[in-house]
Here is the input.
Amino acid sequence: MHIELDVHTHTVVSGHAYSTIREMAREASKKGLKLLGITEHAPGIPGTCSCIYFENLRVIPRNMYRVELLLGAEINILDYDGKLSLEDRLIDKLDIRIAGIHNHCYIPGTIEQNTSAIIGAIKNPKIDIISHPDDGSCPLDYDVIVQAAKKYNTLLEVNNNSLNPINGRKSARENNIRMLFLCKKYDVPIILASDAHVDIDISRFDFVDEILHDVNFPEELIINKSAIDFKNRLRLNRSNNFI
Here is the structure.
């Protein structure tokens, strides 16, 4: 499958990643991507940047090495209502907005509470993507989440980094397979993410490919095939012409 974009990646600014913006863009160009998203962790993750970083993203060129850049954040979901760890005024400055649960910032609850947290972010028109909804330590009702993602035009992510055995994310394979079956059933598009924390991992989808094959997931529901289609999806919930 031809891939044109990878929009969930991190640089040294996130505190636990190891490449610069230029190094990431250069690698994306080598791998033939048209679009690269760099989404630094929002405050709350140890070692990441402060809010002023997101205030000043306007100074960074949006094209490097013939690759278009979308600069944004992976924002933490904080509570069972889907409260986010970045202010709206800062989210509005971002090219791309991802929200996800991280154990540094969220206390797992019941399946109903955790599902409510994700649904709160899905319903937020400022959020484009839900990152790695797959950790078994935070159980979710995937049927409810998939149907909400369809209703609110929010993309659900299948995260290669989560599926890498060295990261030890509980039940990630089983949960992703469950989610993919439901996306296939309800005709809901997904987005693949490398979640690269070093340049060589950009556009790495080896673990994702295995489960896509196992589920016989239709390529037409994978948004990474077209940068144009992806940007058109972003516009669905945007009231401005930023992208």
